[in-house]
Design goal:
Layout: E1 17-27, E2 30-39, E3 42-45, E4 53-59, E5 69-76, E6 81-86, E7 90-92, E8 100-108, E9 113-116, E10 121-123, E11 128-137, E12 142-151, E13 162-173, E14 176-188, H1 189-193, E15 204-211, H2 219-225, E16 232-238, E17 241-248, H3 251-266
């Protein structure tokens, strides 16, 4: 299968360019959002929660199309406790020509604990997405990161998927690179995912990464919480990081597994908007 690219020029003024920036600071033992900047349909809302601060990212456009650009940039101050999630799954629509771009940057201060827990990214047939995550930690800060991707809309009969997905992660502690990952799937995406050494028929994947002084000590706990998971998974830990990868032909089974993992790992339910 090949992806037919439309070469007609799409004017920039019909593309969405959104930016969301905010500082989160701990004042008097409570974390709050400060200096919030929103443009191009991206919004931040912070509902009341029992622990820490929960920031919900909202894309008022309802999805991301080819040529759209979304930028998220957050500074998290010392000792802040923050969960960032999304109001719903992010839908990546068919691209006519240029790919969609999503950039995420977090800078996490000393003693701060941050969870990056967006809901699924759903790639429609013909979608083209370039995504970049850059996260910088201090020696005593911690990061819990979860990203899940659904390839196609099986309920809509998208059993074969053409498109492009390029995902780049860079995580640093004390300005030193400690984790780097690049994924690239082009053209016949389902053909690639069907290969035994790649996805063995998977249509959903997720990566859970915990970077913290206690990360390696929690590996046994993580594995125990996934013992009865309904999908394929693997977990390992090294150099102050614990990593889990999950795969399944069923997006529902991946979501069930990560929801159970989050509940066990966090000691509380997944963010309220996940319900």
């Amino acid at each position: 299968m090949t992806l037919n690219h439309v070469t007609a020029h799409v004017p920039s003024y019909v593309r969405a360019v959104g930016e969301l920036r905010a500082d989160f600071q701990c004042v008097g033992g409570r974390t709050s959002a400060m200096n919030v900047f929103e443009t191009g349909g991206l919004r931040l809302r912070c509902p009341r929660v029992s622990q820490g601060c929960e920031g919900v990212l909202i894309n008022t456009g309802g999805g991301v199309a080819g040529g759209d650009k979304a930028s998220y940039d957050f500074d998290i101050g010392p000792d802040a406790h923050l969960t960032l999630t999304t109001q719903s799954a992010e839908k990546i629509y068919r691209a006519q020509s240029d790919p969609a771009q999503i950039d995420v940057a977090l800078r996490i201060g000393a003693g701060a604990a941050v969870e990056w827990l967006p809901q699924e990214t759903i790639l429609f047939d013909g979608a083209r997405l370039q995504r970049r995550l850059d996260m910088d930690l201090e020696e005593t800060s911690s990061l819990t990161l979860l990203e899940s991707v659904v390839f196609g809309r099986m309920a809509m009969g998208e059993t074969e998927l053409a498109g492009s997905f390029r995902d780049r992660w860079r995580i640093r502690r004390n300005r030193r690179l400690i984790f780097a990952e690049d994924m690239r799937i082009d053209a016949d995406m389902t053909g690639v995912l069907d290969r035994p050494a790649v996805g063995a028929g998977a249509r959903a994947s997720a990566v859970f990464l915990h970077v913290a002084p206690d990360a390696q000590a929690r590996l046994g706990e993580i594995r125990a919480s996934l013992a009865n998971a309904p999908c394929e998974w693997g977990a390992s830990a090294w150099n102050g990081m614990a990593l889990v990868r999950l795969l399944s032909p069923s997006p529902e089974k991946v979501r069930a597994a990560i929801t159970s993992l989050l509940q066990s790992f966090r000691g509380r339910d997944a963010p309220r908007v996940w319900q």
